[in-house]
Amino acid sequence: MFAVIKSGGKQYRVAADEVITLGKIEAAAGETVSFPVLMLGGDAPKVGAPLVEGATVSAEVVEHTRGGKIIAFKKRRRQNSRRKIGHRQDFTVVRITSITGA
């Protein structure tokens, strides 16, 4: 059985005991969080409009981490003008503990 959840404006396909990386969630490591379910899949799939009533996905926060550095470099030729800025995205690693459906 799998589910499609929504977190941070994005959708993720998850299954039980799966470890996934999401956008940063405000929860400490070891806490349990739940996500809204958009679809339950398996033998008898259920599609929500927009959410599946009574369905929940629980997950445990494993750790908070950061992605690799991305360099944004802009240069205007022959103008002696250039700009360089770096960015690192914050992520949260979660382990899906259970998927319950109505």
From TrEMBL:
<keyword id="KW-0689">Ribosomal protein</keyword>
<comment type="similarity">
    <text>Belongs to the bacterial ribosomal protein bL21 family.</text>
</comment>
<keyword id="KW-0687">Ribonucleoprotein</keyword>
<keyword id="KW-0694">RNA-binding</keyword>
<dbReference type="InterPro" id="IPR036164">
    <property type="entry name" value="bL21-like_sf"/>
</dbReference>
<dbReference type="InterPro" id="IPR001787">
    <property type="entry name" value="Ribosomal_bL21"/>
</dbReference>
<dbReference type="Pfam" id="PF00829">
    <property type="entry name" value="Ribosomal_L21p"/>
</dbReference>
<dbReference type="GO" id="GO:0005840">
    <property type="term" value="C:ribosome"/>
</dbReference>
<comment type="subunit">
    <text>Part of the 50S ribosomal subunit. Contacts protein L20.</text>
</comment>
<dbReference type="InterPro" id="IPR028909">
    <property type="entry name" value="bL21-like"/>
</dbReference>
<protein>
    <recommendedName>
        <fullName>Large ribosomal subunit protein bL21</fullName>
    </recommendedName>
</protein>
<comment type="function">
    <text>This protein binds to 23S rRNA in the presence of protein L20.</text>
</comment>
<keyword id="KW-0699">rRNA-binding</keyword>
